[in-house]
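Fold Annotation — chain and its backbone

Fields — amino acid sequence, structure tokens

___
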Amino acid sequence: MTPETSNAFKQLHAASLKAGVLDEKTKELIALAIAVSRLCDGCVVHHAKAARAAGVTLPELHEMLDVCTLMGGGPATVYGKRAIDSFGG
């Protein structure tokens, strides 16, 4: 990836997750749910850590992962576990 594309993606990332009508915590839960559903390991790790930093609690994470399991089946349980491990705490 070129530096230009990398910088553009970083700007998109920051703009998309900036608090607006939805707060940063909610946006990170959404991003993490999509990461789990898309089976993106690096995304799961990144957004689990970002969710924790944004104030997501472990019970909130667990409930969100329940919905991922509903929508994503068995594979979501594997990446859900990865999210819990990456969340820390």
In short: The chain has five helices and no strands. The mean pLDDT is 94.
